[in-house]
Amino acid sequence: MSKRLLIAIDGPAGAGKSTVAAMLAERLGYGYIDSGAMYRAVALLAIESGTKLDDGPALARLAAESDMKFEWQASGNRLPLRLLLGCRDVTETIRSPEVARAASLVSIHSEVREQLVRQQRELGRQGGVVMEGRDIGTKVFPEADLKVFLDASLEVRSERRVRDMEGTGQGSSANVLRQMAERDRRDRLREQSPLVPAEDSIRIDSTHLSAEEVVEKILRLVDRKKQVGCEK
Predict the structure, then answer these.
(1) pLDDT reading at 199 higher than 90
(2) Measured between alpha carbons, how far is 47 from 50 in angstroms, rounded to an integer?
(3) How many CA atoms lie within 13 A of 100 on its CB side?
(4) CA angle at residue 138 from 132 to 139, to 5 degrees?
(5) Nearest Cα to 40, choosing from 83, 88, 78, 86?
(6) DSSP strand E in the chain: where?
């Protein structure tokens, strides 16, 4: 039986991590974990409960008590899984701009990150998982079998986000570009788990690539990893 790898995909917002990770997991028959969705879920709980976004200990308690579960489903959707808080499906709710902005502030707190990192490690410890986020290869699973840092130009990333939001009336191109630049700044300069490529990660620039082309590149890397494992 071939080894079931633990694959970490990191990168900035709009680089295509969710789409690529979901497609890759489907091709490999692996589980898919969107770590960013977990921060969004905590942000949603904070908004609903009136918890202040600068109160790290209170946010960490929300994370610890959240009863967060992923449910995978066979489909060709962009995100072939559901995120449940208890029995409540929040998969779509956490994608709102309000929750996204709050999640960026929630993720700054070390107490929250420590709580969610523990949960993420438990979800991925047996392998056969594609996990994506911003610190998977550096903090959550530095021992991951394969680490990919997926990037793209700021302009292309903001254009992709605008396309995702088409028809929602949730933001102009200029606003999205400004918000994404600010998100990049926060992610890269934060004290806890800043957005940086792991030393042994493989960088893929998706600026001029489709999601399918990125997946094919990663599948070749997976094959190489498995071959090396068999030779040991």
Answers:
(1) yes
(2) 5
(3) 15
(4) 85
(5) 83
(6) 6-10, 31-34, 68-72, 81-85, 88-89, 129-133, 146-151, 202-205
Write the DSSP assignment of 137-160 as a string of letters.
Answer: IIII-TT-SEEEEEE--HHHHHHH
- Residues with Cβ within 8 Å of residue 121, at least 6 apart in sequence: 140, 141
Residue 88 main-chain phi, psi, to 5 deg:
-95, 125
How confident is the model over 171-188, as a mean pLDDT?
Answer: 80
Q: Which residues pair with 88 in a beta bridge?
A: 85
CATH number of 6-231: 3.40.50.300
- Residue 1: the pLDDT is 45
CB 67 within 8 A of CB 86: yes
The torsion defined by the Cα of 175, 212, 121 and 148, in degrees rounded to 10, comes to -80
- Where along the chain do its domains lie? 6-231
For the whole model, what pTM was predicted?
Answer: 0.84
Phi and psi for 204 in degrees, rounded to 5?
-125, 125
Give me the torsion for CA of 180, 205, 31, 69, rounded to 10°: -10
